[in-house]
Specification:
Length: 414
Protein backbone atom coordinates (compact mmCIF):
# COMPACT_ATOMS: atom_id res chain seq x y z
CA UNK A 1 0.00 0.00 0.00
CA UNK A 2 1.54 3.23 -1.04
CA UNK A 3 2.27 6.20 1.09
CA UNK A 4 -0.05 8.27 -1.06
CA UNK A 5 -2.95 5.99 -0.20
CA UNK A 6 -2.75 6.20 3.56
CA UNK A 7 -1.16 9.47 4.71
CA UNK A 8 -1.99 10.59 8.22
CA UNK A 9 0.76 12.84 9.52
CA UNK A 10 0.26 16.58 9.06
CA UNK A 11 2.65 18.25 6.64
CA UNK A 12 3.26 21.94 6.24
CA UNK A 13 3.63 21.46 2.53
CA UNK A 14 1.42 18.95 0.74
CA UNK A 15 2.57 17.73 -2.65
CA UNK A 16 0.31 16.09 -5.20
CA UNK A 17 0.01 12.38 -4.57
CA UNK A 18 1.61 11.41 -7.84
CA UNK A 19 4.82 13.18 -6.85
CA UNK A 20 5.36 11.28 -3.61
CA UNK A 21 8.12 8.70 -3.50
CA UNK A 22 7.07 5.12 -2.89
CA UNK A 23 9.38 2.56 -1.29
CA UNK A 24 10.54 -0.42 -3.31
CA UNK A 25 10.50 -3.82 -1.61
CA UNK A 26 12.07 -7.14 -2.67
CA UNK A 27 9.98 -9.14 -5.10
CA UNK A 28 7.42 -11.45 -3.47
CA UNK A 29 6.75 -14.73 -5.28
CA UNK A 30 4.30 -16.32 -2.84
CA UNK A 31 0.49 -16.43 -2.98
CA UNK A 32 -1.02 -13.05 -3.86
CA UNK A 33 -3.44 -13.42 -0.94
CA UNK A 34 -0.51 -13.19 1.48
CA UNK A 35 1.41 -10.40 -0.24
CA UNK A 36 -0.02 -7.58 1.91
CA UNK A 37 -2.01 -7.44 5.12
CA UNK A 38 -5.07 -5.78 3.60
CA UNK A 39 -5.85 -8.88 1.52
CA UNK A 40 -6.57 -11.53 4.19
CA UNK A 41 -7.73 -9.16 6.91
CA UNK A 42 -10.11 -7.06 4.85
CA UNK A 43 -11.67 -10.18 3.37
CA UNK A 44 -11.83 -11.93 6.74
CA UNK A 45 -13.36 -8.88 8.43
CA UNK A 46 -16.01 -8.53 5.70
CA UNK A 47 -17.04 -12.20 5.90
CA UNK A 48 -17.13 -12.07 9.69
CA UNK A 49 -19.10 -8.81 9.89
CA UNK A 50 -21.56 -9.94 7.24
CA UNK A 51 -22.39 -13.19 9.03
CA UNK A 52 -21.97 -12.18 12.66
CA UNK A 53 -24.57 -9.40 12.68
CA UNK A 54 -27.15 -11.68 11.05
CA UNK A 55 -26.48 -14.34 13.70
CA UNK A 56 -26.78 -11.76 16.49
CA UNK A 57 -30.16 -10.50 15.30
CA UNK A 58 -31.40 -14.08 14.96
CA UNK A 59 -30.28 -14.82 18.54
CA UNK A 60 -31.82 -11.58 19.81
CA UNK A 61 -35.13 -12.43 18.16
CA UNK A 62 -35.09 -15.93 19.65
CA UNK A 63 -34.95 -17.60 16.26
CA UNK A 64 -31.81 -19.56 17.16
CA UNK A 65 -30.09 -20.54 20.38
CA UNK A 66 -26.39 -19.89 20.78
CA UNK A 67 -23.83 -20.85 23.43
CA UNK A 68 -20.96 -18.38 23.52
CA UNK A 69 -18.06 -17.71 25.86
CA UNK A 70 -20.10 -14.84 27.33
CA UNK A 71 -23.82 -13.97 27.45
CA UNK A 72 -25.22 -13.06 24.04
CA UNK A 73 -25.09 -9.29 24.54
CA UNK A 74 -21.46 -9.33 25.74
CA UNK A 75 -20.52 -11.73 22.93
CA UNK A 76 -22.02 -9.37 20.36
CA UNK A 77 -20.26 -6.33 21.83
CA UNK A 78 -16.92 -8.09 22.14
CA UNK A 79 -16.92 -9.52 18.65
CA UNK A 80 -17.83 -6.24 17.01
CA UNK A 81 -15.32 -4.20 19.01
CA UNK A 82 -12.52 -6.72 19.44
CA UNK A 83 -13.11 -9.15 16.58
CA UNK A 84 -14.29 -7.28 13.51
CA UNK A 85 -12.49 -3.99 14.16
CA UNK A 86 -9.03 -5.43 14.96
CA UNK A 87 -9.06 -7.26 11.62
CA UNK A 88 -9.62 -3.97 9.84
CA UNK A 89 -6.98 -2.23 11.93
CA UNK A 90 -4.53 -5.04 11.15
CA UNK A 91 -5.25 -4.91 7.44
CA UNK A 92 -4.69 -1.16 7.45
CA UNK A 93 -1.54 -1.07 9.57
CA UNK A 94 0.21 -4.14 8.14
CA UNK A 95 -0.08 -2.50 4.73
CA UNK A 96 0.60 1.09 5.72
CA UNK A 97 3.50 0.62 8.15
CA UNK A 98 6.01 -0.59 5.50
CA UNK A 99 5.40 2.57 3.50
CA UNK A 100 5.64 4.80 6.55
CA UNK A 101 8.92 3.16 7.60
CA UNK A 102 10.46 1.86 4.33
CA UNK A 103 10.71 -1.59 5.95
CA UNK A 104 9.75 -4.91 4.35
CA UNK A 105 6.06 -5.74 4.95
CA UNK A 106 4.82 -8.75 6.90
CA UNK A 107 3.93 -11.29 4.22
CA UNK A 108 3.82 -14.99 3.44
CA UNK A 109 3.88 -17.45 6.36
CA UNK A 110 4.13 -14.84 9.19
CA UNK A 111 1.10 -13.02 7.78
CA UNK A 112 -0.79 -16.31 7.46
CA UNK A 113 -0.03 -17.26 11.07
CA UNK A 114 -1.24 -13.90 12.34
CA UNK A 115 -4.44 -14.20 10.33
CA UNK A 116 -5.03 -17.75 11.62
CA UNK A 117 -4.53 -16.48 15.19
CA UNK A 118 -7.30 -13.90 14.62
CA UNK A 119 -9.54 -16.55 13.03
CA UNK A 120 -8.93 -19.06 15.85
CA UNK A 121 -9.95 -16.44 18.41
CA UNK A 122 -13.21 -15.77 16.57
CA UNK A 123 -14.08 -19.47 16.54
CA UNK A 124 -13.18 -20.02 20.20
CA UNK A 125 -15.15 -17.02 21.45
CA UNK A 126 -18.17 -18.07 19.40
CA UNK A 127 -17.95 -21.80 20.19
CA UNK A 128 -15.92 -21.82 23.42
CA UNK A 129 -15.12 -25.52 23.60
CA UNK A 130 -11.58 -24.82 24.83
CA UNK A 131 -12.77 -22.82 27.85
CA UNK A 132 -12.11 -19.28 29.01
CA UNK A 133 -8.36 -19.08 29.79
CA UNK A 134 -7.14 -20.54 26.47
CA UNK A 135 -9.65 -18.49 24.48
CA UNK A 136 -8.72 -15.30 26.28
CA UNK A 137 -5.02 -16.03 25.79
CA UNK A 138 -5.38 -16.55 22.05
CA UNK A 139 -7.74 -13.63 21.52
CA UNK A 140 -5.66 -11.29 23.67
CA UNK A 141 -2.44 -12.35 21.95
CA UNK A 142 -3.60 -11.09 18.55
CA UNK A 143 -3.84 -7.41 19.48
CA UNK A 144 -0.75 -7.62 21.69
CA UNK A 145 1.28 -9.03 18.77
CA UNK A 146 -0.14 -6.39 16.44
CA UNK A 147 0.81 -3.62 18.89
CA UNK A 148 4.30 -5.14 19.28
CA UNK A 149 4.71 -5.18 15.51
CA UNK A 150 3.74 -1.51 15.23
CA UNK A 151 6.15 -0.50 17.98
CA UNK A 152 8.96 -2.59 16.49
CA UNK A 153 8.55 -0.89 13.12
CA UNK A 154 8.38 2.56 14.70
CA UNK A 155 11.54 2.02 16.74
CA UNK A 156 13.49 0.27 13.97
CA UNK A 157 12.75 3.03 11.47
CA UNK A 158 12.87 5.90 13.94
CA UNK A 159 9.37 6.85 12.76
CA UNK A 160 8.53 8.76 15.92
CA UNK A 161 5.70 10.65 14.23
CA UNK A 162 3.78 7.34 14.27
CA UNK A 163 3.98 6.96 18.06
CA UNK A 164 0.29 8.01 18.49
CA UNK A 165 -0.72 5.04 16.32
CA UNK A 166 1.31 2.65 18.47
CA UNK A 167 -0.22 4.12 21.62
CA UNK A 168 -3.79 3.79 20.31
CA UNK A 169 -3.31 0.16 19.28
CA UNK A 170 -1.78 -0.58 22.69
CA UNK A 171 -4.73 1.00 24.51
CA UNK A 172 -7.07 -1.04 22.32
CA UNK A 173 -5.21 -4.25 23.24
CA UNK A 174 -5.48 -3.30 26.91
CA UNK A 175 -9.21 -2.64 26.59
CA UNK A 176 -9.67 -6.12 25.12
CA UNK A 177 -7.90 -7.78 28.05
CA UNK A 178 -9.86 -5.68 30.53
CA UNK A 179 -13.11 -6.72 28.83
CA UNK A 180 -12.18 -10.40 29.18
CA UNK A 181 -11.19 -10.02 32.83
CA UNK A 182 -14.45 -8.24 33.65
CA UNK A 183 -16.68 -10.63 31.69
CA UNK A 184 -15.05 -13.78 33.08
CA UNK A 185 -15.68 -12.52 36.61
CA UNK A 186 -19.27 -11.57 35.82
CA UNK A 187 -18.60 -7.86 36.32
CA UNK A 188 -19.93 -5.04 34.08
CA UNK A 189 -17.90 -4.44 30.93
CA UNK A 190 -18.87 -0.80 30.48
CA UNK A 191 -15.39 0.63 31.20
CA UNK A 192 -13.49 -1.44 28.59
CA UNK A 193 -16.33 -0.81 26.15
CA UNK A 194 -16.03 2.96 26.57
CA UNK A 195 -12.25 2.70 26.36
CA UNK A 196 -12.45 0.80 23.06
CA UNK A 197 -15.10 3.13 21.64
CA UNK A 198 -13.06 6.16 22.68
CA UNK A 199 -9.90 4.78 21.06
CA UNK A 200 -11.81 4.19 17.84
CA UNK A 201 -13.29 7.70 17.95
CA UNK A 202 -9.81 9.19 18.25
CA UNK A 203 -8.47 6.91 15.50
CA UNK A 204 -11.27 7.95 13.15
CA UNK A 205 -10.68 11.58 14.05
CA UNK A 206 -6.94 11.33 13.34
CA UNK A 207 -6.76 8.86 10.45
CA UNK A 208 -10.14 9.59 8.86
CA UNK A 209 -9.41 13.27 9.34
CA UNK A 210 -6.21 12.85 7.35
CA UNK A 211 -7.47 10.57 4.58
CA UNK A 212 -10.59 12.59 3.82
CA UNK A 213 -9.00 15.99 3.04
CA UNK A 214 -6.00 14.34 1.35
CA UNK A 215 -8.09 12.44 -1.18
CA UNK A 216 -10.45 15.39 -1.51
CA UNK A 217 -7.50 17.62 -2.34
CA UNK A 218 -6.30 15.07 -4.89
CA UNK A 219 -9.78 15.03 -6.45
CA UNK A 220 -9.89 18.84 -6.61
CA UNK A 221 -6.50 18.99 -8.31
CA UNK A 222 -7.43 16.28 -10.81
CA UNK A 223 -10.72 17.97 -11.66
CA UNK A 224 -9.04 21.41 -11.72
CA UNK A 225 -11.34 22.81 -9.02
CA UNK A 226 -10.16 26.05 -7.43
CA UNK A 227 -8.97 26.25 -3.82
CA UNK A 228 -8.49 22.61 -2.80
CA UNK A 229 -8.89 22.10 0.96
CA UNK A 230 -5.96 22.19 3.33
CA UNK A 231 -4.93 18.77 4.58
CA UNK A 232 -4.05 20.04 8.04
CA UNK A 233 -4.33 23.35 9.86
CA UNK A 234 -4.68 24.72 13.36
CA UNK A 235 -8.42 24.04 13.14
CA UNK A 236 -7.69 20.34 12.59
CA UNK A 237 -5.17 20.22 15.41
CA UNK A 238 -7.58 21.92 17.78
CA UNK A 239 -10.42 19.55 16.85
CA UNK A 240 -8.23 16.48 17.40
CA UNK A 241 -7.08 17.73 20.80
CA UNK A 242 -10.66 18.52 21.83
CA UNK A 243 -11.89 15.06 20.81
CA UNK A 244 -9.05 13.48 22.77
CA UNK A 245 -10.04 15.42 25.89
CA UNK A 246 -13.71 14.57 25.34
CA UNK A 247 -12.94 10.87 24.94
CA UNK A 248 -10.92 10.80 28.17
CA UNK A 249 -13.73 12.59 30.00
CA UNK A 250 -16.30 10.07 28.73
CA UNK A 251 -14.14 7.16 29.90
CA UNK A 252 -13.68 8.63 33.37
CA UNK A 253 -17.04 10.39 33.94
CA UNK A 254 -19.66 9.03 31.53
CA UNK A 255 -22.61 10.61 33.33
CA UNK A 256 -21.13 14.03 34.05
CA UNK A 257 -22.89 17.06 32.57
CA UNK A 258 -19.46 18.51 31.89
CA UNK A 259 -18.72 15.46 29.72
CA UNK A 260 -21.99 15.97 27.86
CA UNK A 261 -21.26 19.61 27.05
CA UNK A 262 -17.67 18.76 26.14
CA UNK A 263 -18.76 16.04 23.71
CA UNK A 264 -21.22 18.40 22.05
CA UNK A 265 -18.34 20.84 21.59
CA UNK A 266 -16.29 18.01 20.08
CA UNK A 267 -19.11 17.27 17.65
CA UNK A 268 -19.40 20.89 16.58
CA UNK A 269 -15.62 21.13 16.07
CA UNK A 270 -15.63 17.92 14.02
CA UNK A 271 -18.45 19.12 11.78
CA UNK A 272 -16.76 22.51 11.29
CA UNK A 273 -13.67 20.60 10.24
CA UNK A 274 -15.76 18.54 7.82
CA UNK A 275 -17.42 21.59 6.23
CA UNK A 276 -14.01 23.12 5.52
CA UNK A 277 -13.18 20.13 3.27
CA UNK A 278 -16.06 20.95 0.86
CA UNK A 279 -17.13 17.35 0.50
CA UNK A 280 -20.36 18.20 -1.34
CA UNK A 281 -18.25 19.03 -4.40
CA UNK A 282 -16.94 15.45 -4.59
CA UNK A 283 -20.32 13.95 -5.52
CA UNK A 284 -19.09 12.87 -9.01
CA UNK A 285 -16.78 10.35 -7.29
CA UNK A 286 -18.52 8.35 -4.53
CA UNK A 287 -15.17 6.83 -3.53
CA UNK A 288 -14.23 10.27 -2.16
CA UNK A 289 -17.69 11.41 -1.08
CA UNK A 290 -18.15 8.37 1.17
CA UNK A 291 -15.16 9.46 3.27
CA UNK A 292 -16.99 12.71 4.05
CA UNK A 293 -20.13 10.76 4.94
CA UNK A 294 -18.11 8.53 7.26
CA UNK A 295 -16.46 11.47 8.99
CA UNK A 296 -19.84 13.19 9.26
CA UNK A 297 -21.05 10.19 11.27
CA UNK A 298 -18.17 10.79 13.71
CA UNK A 299 -19.25 14.38 14.35
CA UNK A 300 -22.87 13.31 14.66
CA UNK A 301 -21.94 10.61 17.18
CA UNK A 302 -20.20 13.12 19.42
CA UNK A 303 -23.20 15.46 19.28
CA UNK A 304 -25.74 12.71 19.95
CA UNK A 305 -23.70 11.10 22.72
CA UNK A 306 -23.34 14.46 24.45
CA UNK A 307 -27.09 15.00 24.12
CA UNK A 308 -27.88 11.57 25.58
CA UNK A 309 -25.73 12.32 28.64
CA UNK A 310 -27.57 15.62 29.13
CA UNK A 311 -30.93 13.86 28.84
CA UNK A 312 -32.22 14.71 25.37
CA UNK A 313 -32.22 13.05 21.97
CA UNK A 314 -31.36 9.38 21.51
CA UNK A 315 -30.58 6.93 24.28
CA UNK A 316 -26.92 6.28 25.03
CA UNK A 317 -27.16 2.79 23.51
CA UNK A 318 -28.53 4.17 20.25
CA UNK A 319 -26.01 7.02 20.33
CA UNK A 320 -23.21 4.46 20.53
CA UNK A 321 -24.56 2.83 17.37
CA UNK A 322 -24.13 6.15 15.57
CA UNK A 323 -20.43 5.41 16.00
CA UNK A 324 -20.38 1.63 15.55
CA UNK A 325 -22.97 1.18 12.80
CA UNK A 326 -22.64 4.59 11.17
CA UNK A 327 -19.11 5.96 11.46
CA UNK A 328 -17.19 2.71 11.74
CA UNK A 329 -19.30 0.84 9.22
CA UNK A 330 -19.12 3.61 6.64
CA UNK A 331 -15.50 4.67 7.11
CA UNK A 332 -14.14 1.12 7.13
CA UNK A 333 -15.97 0.26 3.91
CA UNK A 334 -14.69 3.49 2.38
CA UNK A 335 -11.08 2.56 3.19
CA UNK A 336 -11.52 -1.10 2.24
CA UNK A 337 -12.97 -0.37 -1.18
CA UNK A 338 -10.43 2.32 -2.04
CA UNK A 339 -7.47 0.22 -0.88
CA UNK A 340 -8.71 -2.90 -2.65
CA UNK A 341 -8.96 -0.99 -5.92
CA UNK A 342 -5.84 1.13 -5.73
CA UNK A 343 -3.53 -1.57 -4.45
CA UNK A 344 -4.58 -4.26 -6.88
CA UNK A 345 -3.89 -2.06 -9.90
CA UNK A 346 -7.48 -1.04 -10.61
CA UNK A 347 -8.86 2.45 -11.25
CA UNK A 348 -9.95 4.20 -8.07
CA UNK A 349 -13.57 4.68 -9.09
CA UNK A 350 -16.72 3.47 -7.36
CA UNK A 351 -18.88 1.38 -9.67
CA UNK A 352 -22.58 0.64 -9.13
CA UNK A 353 -22.02 -2.31 -6.79
CA UNK A 354 -19.67 -0.23 -4.67
CA UNK A 355 -22.24 2.57 -4.44
CA UNK A 356 -24.80 -0.07 -3.46
CA UNK A 357 -22.53 -1.10 -0.57
CA UNK A 358 -22.34 2.49 0.63
CA UNK A 359 -26.12 2.89 0.48
CA UNK A 360 -26.74 -0.41 2.27
CA UNK A 361 -24.34 0.23 5.16
CA UNK A 362 -25.80 3.71 5.77
CA UNK A 363 -29.38 2.45 5.55
CA UNK A 364 -28.53 -0.33 7.99
CA UNK A 365 -27.03 2.21 10.38
CA UNK A 366 -30.14 4.42 10.26
CA UNK A 367 -32.48 1.50 10.99
CA UNK A 368 -30.32 0.46 13.97
CA UNK A 369 -30.02 3.95 15.41
CA UNK A 370 -33.77 4.57 15.40
CA UNK A 371 -34.77 1.08 16.59
CA UNK A 372 -36.50 1.73 19.90
CA UNK A 373 -37.22 -0.37 22.98
CA UNK A 374 -34.36 -2.80 22.50
CA UNK A 375 -34.58 -3.62 26.21
CA UNK A 376 -38.27 -4.52 25.87
CA UNK A 377 -38.49 -5.36 22.15
CA UNK A 378 -41.69 -5.09 20.15
CA UNK A 379 -42.58 -6.30 16.68
CA UNK A 380 -41.49 -2.92 15.33
CA UNK A 381 -38.14 -3.20 17.12
CA UNK A 382 -37.50 -6.67 15.69
CA UNK A 383 -38.48 -5.45 12.23
CA UNK A 384 -36.12 -2.47 12.36
CA UNK A 385 -33.28 -4.58 13.73
CA UNK A 386 -33.86 -7.12 10.97
CA UNK A 387 -33.79 -4.44 8.29
CA UNK A 388 -30.68 -2.98 9.89
CA UNK A 389 -28.93 -6.35 9.80
CA UNK A 390 -29.93 -6.97 6.20
CA UNK A 391 -28.59 -3.59 5.11
CA UNK A 392 -25.41 -3.55 7.18
CA UNK A 393 -24.48 -7.19 6.66
CA UNK A 394 -25.59 -7.02 3.05
CA UNK A 395 -23.03 -4.27 2.43
CA UNK A 396 -20.17 -6.41 3.73
CA UNK A 397 -21.31 -9.58 2.00
CA UNK A 398 -21.55 -7.59 -1.23
CA UNK A 399 -17.96 -6.50 -0.62
CA UNK A 400 -16.96 -10.16 -0.32
CA UNK A 401 -18.74 -11.00 -3.58
CA UNK A 402 -17.42 -8.02 -5.54
CA UNK A 403 -13.98 -7.37 -4.05
CA UNK A 404 -13.09 -10.86 -2.82
CA UNK A 405 -11.69 -11.93 -6.21
CA UNK A 406 -9.50 -8.80 -6.29
CA UNK A 407 -8.01 -9.71 -2.91
CA UNK A 408 -7.12 -13.32 -3.70
CA UNK A 409 -5.73 -12.75 -7.21
CA UNK A 410 -2.51 -10.99 -8.24
CA UNK A 411 -2.67 -7.26 -8.87
CA UNK A 412 -3.27 -6.19 -12.44
CA UNK A 413 -0.03 -4.20 -12.48
CA UNK A 414 2.16 -7.10 -11.36
Amino acid sequence: MTGKELPIVPQSVVVPAEEEDEPTFPRYDGPAFLSYGFRPFFLGAAVFAGLMVLVWVAVFAGLVQGEFLYPAREWHVHEMLFGYLPALIAGFLLTAMPNWTDRIPLRGTPLLLLFLLWLAARLLVTVPAAGGPLTVGIDGAFLVILAAYVWREIIAAGAWDRVPIGALVSFFAGANMLFHLSALQGRPTDVPERLALSVMTVMLTVIGGRLTPTFTREFFITEKFPRPPEVFSRVDGGAILLVLVGAISWIAQPESQWTGFLLIGCGVASLVRLIRWKGWLTWPEPLVLILHVGYGWVGLFLLVLGGSILGFGLSTANAVHVLTSGAMGTMTLAVMTRASLGHTGRPRHADRLTVAMYLLVNAGALFRIFASNVGTPTVLTHTMLGLSALGWSGAYLLFVFHYGPYLVRPSLDE
